[in-house]
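ugh ok fine here u go
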Amino acid sequence: MNSGINLFTSNFRISGISSGLDTEKIISDLMKVERSPLDRLERKKQLAEWKRDEYRNAANLIRGLKDEYFNITKSSTYLLSQSSYKKYSAVSSDDSAVTASAGANAMAGTYEITIHNLATADEAISNGTVSAPLQSSLNLSGDDISKANGKNVIVVIDGMAKKITMGSSTQNISINDLVKDIQEQINISFGIIGQDDDGKNIGKVRVGSTEDGRITFETTEEGGANRITILSDSSNDGLSYLKISSGSSNRLNVNETLESLASKFAGSEEQALTFNDDGALKFSINSKEFTFSKTTSLSSMLNTINSDNDAKVTMIYDEITDKFRLTSKELGAGNNLVIAQTGGNFFGNVSRIDIGSIATGEIYGTKGVDATVKLGGTDGATIKRGSNSFNVNGITYNLKKADVGKTHTIKVDNDIDGVFNNIKGFVDKYNELIDTINGKLSEKYDREYQPLTDEEKNTLSEKEVEKWEQRAKTGLLRNDALLGDMVLDMRKALFDGIKDVNINITSIGITTGRYEEKGKLKIDEQKLKEALKDNPDSIANLFGKKSDKYPSYKRTMTPEERTIRYNESGLAQRLFDIVENNITTMRDEDGKKGFLLEKAGIEGDASEFSNSIYNEIIGYDKSIDSLYNKLIQKENSYFMKFAAMEKILGQMNAQSNWLTAQLGNN
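structure:
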């Protein structure tokens, strides 16, 4: 389909040589008259598209009201629950010890709480360090010591790397001399922390030797260092003479695979990490089975355990203490941490976390306990809970710290301002919706401003086109029955009586304004706040009451069922039904969606290409294509006729010239 003004292309392009006529200009003028029906169709199509967009704008406004006040995930503004109209504030005398929140079932008052202890989790801890010591793999010979003299190694302490030159100018040195010199070089490079009781300097690392002639590296408690790593130097390297592999450390590297870490755990060779016959580790935590291959990194293994919803634990490797820590995610007393090894030997001597249960004392660690609090004064009740957050009589307590002997207070008051602001916010949003739609319904339509054709647009500036179309789009929804009925339904729903509810919206200070404001609501702040204070239950019923017989909105309800639900429902429930009737994507028994979606559709839904206006536009497209093809034929016929005329005139001119020539000769 093509809808431009100069679209007709003919093979019969002629110039009026014989006739002297501007035939192309004549045909162009004729086609302007011929194409006027096409222009009318294209204008109708454009108006339909603009009207569709206006309906969709209205649908989006209604959706905004629904998303803000009828969305159950937004508990602070949700109006369909009666609890939204009975809010309480809860203020603690000491937020560092306990905070609280009050639900709809709470009662205003001051509540006392004494926290004896918090709920804690079962926690298993390695009963010793788990990394193998950083030392020579074999004893050093005199030749090794001699060759190491004057060579370099790289020492990395907690990420800081320094080059260390071993030995001295003396050619013949002992292992003790080598150890002493390495210690001095490290102390110089990394700094002296202080002196011990014997007056010896304390560095971050203590270098020593074993009885069988191995050099050892370990952190000092006073120095505050954790991880030591020894690396080869790129030149003049002497690490191989110390019988230490480059990259060796006194801590596990969680990024290495389980297989590469197998010999790097503390203990004898018999206590190295082993796998089952399939080359895997298998164990269960709280009855959840885990299987890890040799190629799994320690980090990946820990992440898998920690993200499992059934195991309900957190496991970490703490390089500061060089221990594993396994903590239950469930607080309180009970058997919340149970470990069984079914393949390999990770649990036991390797991780130094035993197999069994914390609750039975089989595992080294700390047993979880329940939170113990006293609610009330001298005559209050002492209760235990397996969590630091629990609800009693509509008040949720969140314990932060124990403070035995100190009593804290929670003051619960009616949150009148919170409920008022929520209702006011809804009224403002409702008024915005009503005002916008009423404006469209009363907007005048100016017939002098029709959609522009492409030819007309070419004669105007971009700004002039924009201003023209702004005027042309006005009044498209004037007196629209669909939107008019929806607004009328909303206004009626707010003022019709509700079965078994003895108040109405006017009696609590919400009224309509002047007639010309067409249903916009006004709030008497003082009157509404007094009603919220004196009669919160009635207001909760007025807005949030559900129908006893039909408590939920359903598209398949009969007219009779809808009437019963309407009469028994609160104001918010009624408005929700009206909103759903217009914009729901659910289908009724006839397969129809909401009224506005059936009319104009909405982007992102199947109705975008399945609605009455879409079908109307498709009809215009078909008519435009058909008429366009006819106009091409019409234009070609004009060119053929003028071409025939020019041919005849040319022949006549030729005969005339011949006769003139003959007469001249005679």
